[in-house]
Structures are given as C-alpha cells and as structure tokens.
Structure of ABC transporter substrate-binding protein:
Amino acid sequence: MLYKKRIIISFLALILVFNLFACGKNNQMADNRQIKIYIGVKDKESLNMIKYLTDEYKKANPKTELNINNAMGEKIDEDINDNSNMDVIFTSRTDMLSLIRKGALSDIRNLYKEDDINNRYYSISKSYGRFNDKYYGIALAPYTIEILCNEEAFNKLNLKTPNTMNEFIDTLKILNSLQKRIPVVLNEDMDISIALFSIMSNSLVPMRKLESIYDSGPSAYKALGEIQGCFDRLENMVKNGYINKDTFEIGNENTVQKFDRDDIPVLIASSYYLNDLKNSRIKCLESYSSTSNNVNIPVMADTIMSIPISGKNTDEMSDFAKFVLSDNTQKKLYKKGFITGDKKANISKGDVNKNVIMHLKNSTEDNIAFIYNVPKNFRSNISLKIDHIFSGKYTGNEWNEVVEESY
C-alpha cells in the first residue's frame, strides 16, 4: 500500500513539474512576443503619426516588443530584401506599387473583411491601398490640398471672395497684378510645382487607367497624350498674366497663423495644417469643379500600412493592424490633430474642418494625386518642366519629354 502511494505521489510530482515547465515556457513565449516594423516614410508629419500609434500600442501591449527599422536610403525594395522578415510596413503609395510589382506584399483582403474596412473607412483610403483589384494596404491619414480664402483680407483689398474655380482663376489675375503672393504650405515631400500639377491634372485621365500601366515603359505613358493638357493649361495661365514665377511662395506653420489673422487673402495648404484655424471668415473653395475648369481635389496619403509577404509574426501583426485601424485608436489620432481615414473618428468642427471631411467623404480613386500613380522619378521631371514654363521655356511637348527623361 505504501509502495502504491509512493508511485502516485511520484506521478503527481511529475505532472506538477511538467505543468510548471509548460507554464514557464508559455510565459516566456508571451514575454518574447515581437513585431518587426519598417518605416519607409520620412516627412515629419507622417513620422509623428506613426510614433503616436506605436507608443499607444506599447502602452496597451507592454509584453510585446516593437522592433522598429527606419528607411536607410531611397530604395525601399532593397531595404525590405535586406530585412526580409518585417511584419508591418509604413510606406508611400509609389513605394507600395514598387513592392507589389516585386511580389513583396500580401493581399490583405481578409483583414478588410474581418475588420469591416469597406464600411468603416473612406473610399479614398481604400483606393490608396488597392492595385489591380487587390488590397495591399490602407492609407491612415489622407489629406487634401485645399484652396482657402480669407474674406476679411479680400474686403481690405475691395475684392469679392471667390467661390468657384473659375472665380478663383479670375482672382489670381487680379492678385498677380497687385503683386500679392500666394503662400503654399505642404507636407515635406511636396513642392509648389508638384502641388499645382496635382491640382490641375487629376481630371485629365482616370486613375484606374493610369494605375493599370504602372511602370510599363515609355510607350504606355506617351499614349496618354491628354496629360500634356496640364502643361498647356499652365502655359496659358502664364501667357495671359494669371500666374508667373513669383505668384507662389513656400509657407510654413507660421504662415498659417498669419493667414488666420486676416493678413493673407489666399492660402493653398495641406489639410494637415488646418485644424488650428479659428477665423470664421476663412472659407475653403468648396469645389474645384466649374463649367470650364473641372478639377478633382487631389487627396494625398504619405502613410500606407502594408503587410510584407515574408512576415513571421502573423498573430502579432494581425493584433497590431487591428489595433491601429480600430475606431478607438483612430479617434485618439483625430484628437491629436490628424484627419483620419476612419469615418467614425472624424467629427465636423468649424467650416474649414467640415469641408475637408466632406471632400474626403466624396473622394474616389480619381482623387488620388496623379504623382502617386506613376514611378517616383516622374516627380522631379514634372517639377522641372513646370519651372521651365514659368521661365518662358514652354515647348508643347512637355509630357513626352518627362516620359523620356524618366526612363
């Protein structure tokens, strides 16, 4: 009898040791949870947003380690190849398209379905992450390029405040004759020439058509002869005195504050900078569309969250993505000053904010800024051609020249 008791006690001891070992192993695994994140964006606004999101995730998940790698150079595909086990990537649309062509990104349609992204997020946020009818990412903080007018400043100049694009273009000519410069406040990876091109080119070609020929070679792009219309339109405005090389100037956050104080009649700015406007006499140009100048409001998005196909920490990646995309996190992001892609997070407050949200709500794939649907090297060549037009060097063949110089 004593022998049997000893056997039972020994058996129970073995079970206890096994359970303690298993429990210790599970705790160790829990403590070793990690997510490897690659940040392929460099502008200050996007980095501020990503830092906020990762900090919030750390607070909510203290046992999960975030291993963050920042972009080292200009070629994100090389960075990703060198760090092939990344779990989450924050990048631009142009880099996203490049990675898709190399087979480096996962189709995240399951995440769209599980998280009800199709119903919860604006169409433009989803369009930024789509390529050839598959979803490879989602834009977290889309922002519009807004044309704003200060009614008090216009009154001081004895001018009527424009409401439509036609009226605004007429106003440009008057302001130009008065040598009133128009400040342009943009995110860091944009310049004035590219902003003008984005505003004036978005109605010229369907974005789905442009997307379908992404990096397909010079012949495919030269076939889009309608793009020359943007350069022609700019040349016409220069020739007829509406704008010149001194019409626009680079602004900053201080410029926005000055605009808020009635000192500047017109400001062209990324919606990222407009949350702090308090002047009730400031109005957004409600629509760029008019009878003779039909222009889609360009929507930018520098931060797209994507999932590499080679990621190892699948469960952790899924938890992180769902945390970032949740209504609760997006509402916090909105309170920090970001207009988000989440419909529930954005709350209309003030005329400017209300119009920005309305523009995002009504935006489709055709509001994606032209430059985000062509290879990155097109951007500098387009900017250079516009600078040439301002300097009187219009050729009438700018688009073909851009294509040739980009390949």
Summary: The mean pLDDT is 87. The first helix runs from residue 2 to 31.
